[in-house]
Amino acid sequence: MAVIVFMHAFGSSGRAWQPQIRQLGDSHRVLAPDLPGHGATPGPFSLERAVASIRSVILGEAEPVHLVAVSGSVSVALLVALAEPAQVAGLILSGGTAHGGRGDAVQRLMVRLMPEGLIVSILKGMYAGGKAEHLDQAAQDLRHAGKATILAGLAELGRLDLRDRLGEIKVPALVLNGAKDKANLPHAEEIAAGIHGAEHRVIPNAGHIWNLEQPELFTRTIHEFVRAVSAPSPSSTRA
């Protein structure tokens, strides 16, 4: 039974993966930990603490795991794969980045000046393509994480640059991006180009958090990837 570790967006929580957990839980071991400062996990948030939290999860598993990450947690997944290559069987990465952009400082300043209620109102729009219950849940998670955690995540991503290290990742990787999430398309292309053998797919009519917009397609994509990666190679079959 393959192990799948779901990694949520910054400001969210592990429960954002409920559609996938429900569908895949019978055939796979599924884990959806809350990152530091999110859900049930105490803060403060930092990339170092986030990576350590995921490393502790996967090092407790007998077999290498598949990491499925969206948005900010894509950077965490990349760092985990670099730190624990023997414990990662595959990567599914959606809507993330391997480095900060020139507009990050401006974005952080704008968020710092906004009241928390406005931040929640703006960020929950990333979940608007899902059901009403997902939008309500996203707002709850964002309020629980709070402004300080959201700012910490933005600051950490702004300082990050993994472009020169992507070639060190040797596991199968599927890099995804919603077609409507235009700002992250160049980042997805960059990650896919940097990881040897990675596949890049643009998902039609999908936004940033599209595992809730198109849950059946996202779940099927995970299932097919894990099955393909887990299948024995022809040489091992002949042996």
From TrEMBL:
Species of the source: Nonomuraea africana
Pfam families per record: Abhydrolase_6
Protein name: Pimeloyl-ACP methyl ester carboxylesterase
SUPFAM superfamilies in the record: alpha/beta-Hydrolases
Domain AB hydrolase-1: 4-218
Domain of life, source organism: Bacteria
